[in-house]
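Propose amino acids for all 264 sites.
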């Protein structure tokens, strides 16, 4: 499995675009660096191939590579970030992807499309795209994108601002199984999701520790800290679980999964 990450050289909380970000709370940068490196090393130990995007000064959220794009079938969909402060990240991802030989599905029209935040809101299990919307991405984005297979979309409306991206409350483990925090979704969405995939419930407390923001590499699941029940749940289902402490990144509203972008 190939993954793109971006080192936390300029990571910081400099603006507030989700309820986790608090300008009065400071980041321990040495700790953040260690946490990022532990995640990186854990992925390598799971045999993932990790490429690195060069961090850019002035883009404090660039460490969250899940957001500026999404690999869909054979090409990348570039994001249209809701908040201007993150929009330049797409320029850097696009340059990297073009250089690496990836096709782009939505050539240069992103300023005119509705909002979409990449792997933060678009999650794939088998052939299904779980299409998150409500806070950062717009439902219309998916409806209008001609390159999306409309028959294989499951619309997921988010209703709790703490779970503003789909990857904060839903995590496909494989084609047939996923973790979720049902409280993040409206009832209709819950039914649609349950009809498509088997769902393992994460309780409220661990959901707030971002238990659903896990990275899956084959049979291995990497969870943020303070999620022991989720760990046991996954182990009972035969998965190997590693834990990576993410306290500094939670202050920005992100954890393990947010810092990875799938490249294959
Ligand atoms: N501070 C970032 C933002 O609000 C965090 C992004 C987290 N990424 C994710 N995939 N959920 O945009």
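Proposal:
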């Amino acid at each position: 499995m190939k993954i793109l990450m971006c080192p936390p050289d300029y990571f910081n909380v400099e603006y507030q675009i989700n309820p986790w970000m608090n300008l009065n709370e400071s980041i321990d940068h040495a700790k953040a660096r260690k946490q990022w490196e532990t995640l990186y090393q854990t992925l390598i130990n799971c045999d993932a191939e990790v490429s690195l995007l060069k961090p850019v000064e002035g883009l404090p959220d660039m460490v969250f590579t899940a957001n500026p794009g999404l690999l869909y079938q054979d090409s990348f969909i570039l994001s249209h970030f809701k908040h201007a402060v993150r929009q330049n990240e797409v320029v850097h991802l696009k340059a990297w992807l073009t250089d690496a030989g990836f096709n782009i599905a939505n050539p240069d029209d992103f300023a005119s499309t509705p909002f979409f935040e990449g792997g933060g809101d678009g999650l794939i299990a088998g052939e299904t795209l779980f299409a998150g919307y409500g806070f950062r991405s717009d439902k219309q984005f998916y409806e209008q994108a001609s390159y999306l297979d409309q028959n294989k979309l499951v619309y997921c409306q988010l209703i709790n601002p703490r779970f503003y991206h789909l990857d904060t409350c839903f995590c496909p483990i494989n084609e047939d199984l996923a973790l979720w925090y049902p409280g993040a979704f409206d009832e209709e969405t819950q039914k649609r999701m349950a009809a498509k995939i088997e769902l393992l419930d994460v309780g409220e407390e661990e959901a707030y520790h971002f238990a659903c923001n896990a990275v899956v590499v084959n049979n291995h699941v990497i969870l943020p800290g303070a999620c022991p029940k989720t760990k046991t749940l996954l182990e009972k289902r035969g998965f190997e679980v590693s834990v990576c402490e993410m306290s500094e990144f939670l202050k920005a509203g992100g954890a393990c999964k947010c810092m990875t972008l799938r490249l294959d």
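The chain has one domain: 2-262. The first strand starts at residue 2 and ends at 5.
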